[in-house]
Design brief:
453 residues; alpha/beta; FAD/NAD(P)-binding domain; 7-stranded mixed β-sheet; 5-stranded parallel β-sheet; 13 helices
C-alpha cells in the first residue's frame, strides 16, 4: 500500500495548523504533501509588506496574545523579534476622551463573576448569565462589548463555560500581555515551512481539493488547479483537514468546499454545531499620525467607543507610524457583511471622524480583506455556543484512524481563535496520525507535542 501512495499523509491547508502538522509528520519520517488553495501560505495570517509603511500590515491575525511557549520558541529559534504592545486604553465619545475606569472595573467584575459561576454541566449563554444577575447596566454593556468584540461572537449564543475555559488558559500564559512580530506575523508560517521543505514534505499552492474519497487506511484526494481546470488524483494513507470552520459548515457545492465520500457524519455534525465568528478590520495609513497631536491620545494604543459598526481602533504602538486599524466583530460586523470594499472603507472613515472629531490628515493607503466572503475561510474565527465544549472534542477525534481534523476550531486546550491554538491543534493531529500509522507509542500529551517541531 505504501508504494502505491503519492504520500503517507496529505494535509489540506497551509495555514499554521496544516504547516505544523506537516512539519511534525515529516520530522517523524513520513512523506507529506500539503495542499493549499491560495497562492500563498499562512491561511488567516495574511501580512502585507508596504514599502511606504514603517511596519508590516496585518490583514488577519496581528497580535500574539500572552506568552504561548510554541510561538515564543519558534520566534526565538528563527530570530523573529517580538515587541510588546505598550500604551494605554482610551474611551472616546463624540470626539472627547472620557474617564472610563469605573465602567472598566465594573465589566471586569462581571466577567470575574461569570468565570466563577460557569461550568460545563450548568452552561448558558453570556446574555442569559447577565439576565440572571443584577449588575449595573453600564457594567453589563461594557462586558458585552468585550465578549462580542474579542470573541467575534453574539452574546446570546456564546457559552460561558467556554469563556471561562479560555480565560483560564489565557491566564496560564499571561494572556493580558500582547506582542507583535516586528517583521510581520508571516514570519511564523514561513519558519515552519522552512522546516517542512527541508525534509520529506512539500507544499503545493493553487491546489484546491474538491473531492475526498476514502476508506480506512486509504485516501484519494481530487485536486484541481486554476491554470488548466484539470483534476489530479493524489493518494495517501491518512488525511489531515485544516480548513477553517466556515468552509466545513458551507453547503456542498459552494466554492472552496470539499465533498467527502463517504461523509464523516459525526465530524461534520460537530463542525456545524460550532459557531463561525464574524469580524471586519480596516487598516488606514495617513500622511501623519494626527491622533498623536492630542495629549490625551499620545500614549494610547487602544481606543474604544460606542460607535455602532467600528467601535474599536488601535495604533501601531510602540511603533511611531501613521497607521491605525479599525475593528468590528460579532453583531456590530453584521451590517458590513457582503458590502463592497468602498462602502466598508467609507463607514470606517466616517466612524473615525466621529470618534476623533475629525480627520485632519490625508489618507494615503487602505487595506481590507473580506474573510467572510473569502471562499477558503468563510469566517474570521470560531467560538463555542451553549453546550458546545464537548463538540470541539468530537471534531478533534480521529475518524476511522484515517481522517484527522485540525485548526483553531478544533482546539481543546482553551486557546480557540488564536494562532498558537491552531498550531497546537496541528501538532495534536500529527500525534494522532503517528499513533494510527504505528509511528508512536501513544498520543503525545500537549506538552510533548511541542517536541514534534
Amino acid at each position: 500500500m505504501v508504494n502505491s501512495c503519492d504520500a503517507d499523509v496529505i494535509v489540506i491547508g497551509a495555514g499554521v495548523a496544516g504547516l505544523a502538522a506537516a512539519a511534525a509528520l515529516c520530522r517523524n519520517g513520513l512523506r507529506v504533501i500539503c495542499l493549499e488553495a491560495r497562492g500563498r501560505i499562512g491561511g488567516r495570517i495574511h501580512t502585507v509588506h508596504d514599502a511606504l509603511a514603517a511596519v508590516a500590515v496585518e490583514l488577519g491575525a496581528e497580535f500574539v496574545h500572552g506568552c504561548p511557549p510554541l510561538t515564543l520558541s519558534l520566534a526565538r529559534r528563527n530570530s523573529l523579534p517580538l515587541i510588546e504592545v505598550t500604551g494605554g486604553r482610551v474611551r472616546l465619545e463624540h470626539g472627547h476622551a472620557i474617564d472610563d475606569s469605573a465602567a472598566a472595573r465594573g465589566a471586569e467584575a462581571v466577567l470575574g463573576s461569570m468565570r466563577t459561576e460557569a461550568g460545563e454541566e450548568h452552561d448558558s449563554s453570556f446574555a442569559s448569565f447577565l439576565d440572571r444577575h443584577q449588575f449595573p447596566a453600564p457594567d453589563k454593556r461594557r462586558a458585552t462589548e468585550f465578549v462580542e468584540g474579542f470573541n467575534a461572537a453574539f452574546a446570546g449564543r456564546i457559552s460561558i463555560a467556554a469563556l471561562a475555559d479560555e480565560a483560564r488558559a489565557a491566564q496560564a500564559i499571561e494572556g493580558e500581555r500582547m506582542f507583535r512580530l516586528a517583521g510581520g506575523y508571516d514570519g511564523i508560517p514561513l519558519a515552519i515551512h522552512r522546516m517542512l521543505s527541508s525534509g520529506l514534505g512539500q507544499v503545493r499552492l493553487h491546489s484546491t481539493v474538491r473531492r475526498v474519497e476514502w476508506s480506512e487506511g486509504r485516501v484519494r484526494a481530487g485536486v484541481s488547479s486554476p491554470w488548466d481546470g484539470g483534476e489530479e488524483a493524489l493518494r495517501s494513507r491518512a488525511l489531515v483537514v485544516t480548513v477553517p470552520l466556515g468552509v466545513l459548515q458551507a453547503a456542498p457545492g459552494e466554492p472552496g468546499t470539499i465533498c467527502f465520500e463517504p461523509e464523516p457524519v459525526e465530524a461534520l455534525q460537530a463542525a456545524r454545531a460550532l459557531c463561525a465568528g464574524q469580524a471586519v478590520r480596516v487598516t488606514l495609513r495617513f500622511d501623519r499620525a494626527f491622533w498623536m497631536e492630542r495629549e490625551e491620545l499620545r500614549q494610547a494604543c487602544m481606543m474604544f467607543s460606542g460607535e455602532p459598526v467600528f467601535p474599536v481602533w488601535w495604533t501601531m504602538a510602540p511603533f511611531d507610524t501613521p497607521v491605525i486599524t479599525g475593528w468590528s466583530a460579532g453583531p456590530k460586523a453584521a451590517p458590513l457583511t457582503g458590502q463592497p470594499r468602498p462602502a466598508v472603507m467609507s463607514e470606517a472613515l466616517s466612524t473615525l471622524k466621529r470618534m476623533l472629531g475629525g480627520v485632519p490628515a490625508r489618507l494615503e493607503s487602505a487595506w481590507y480583506h473580506d474573510w467572510q466572503a473569502d471562499p477558503f475561510s468563510r469566517c474570521a474565527y470560531s467560538y463555542v455556543p451553549v453546550g458546545g465544549l464537548p463538540v470541539r472534542r468530537r471534531l478533534a477525534a480521529p475518524v476511522a484512524e484515517t481522517l484527522f481534523f485540525a485548526g483553531e476550531a478544533t482546539d481543546t486546550s482553551g486557546h480557540t481563535g488564536t494562532v498558537h491554538g491552531a498550531m497546537a491543534s496541528g501538532l495534536r493531529a500529527a500525534a494522532q496520525v503517528l499513533e494510527a500509522l504505528g509511528r508512536s507509542g501513544g498520543t503525545s500529551p500537549p506538552g510533548a507535542a511541542y517536541q514534534l517541531l
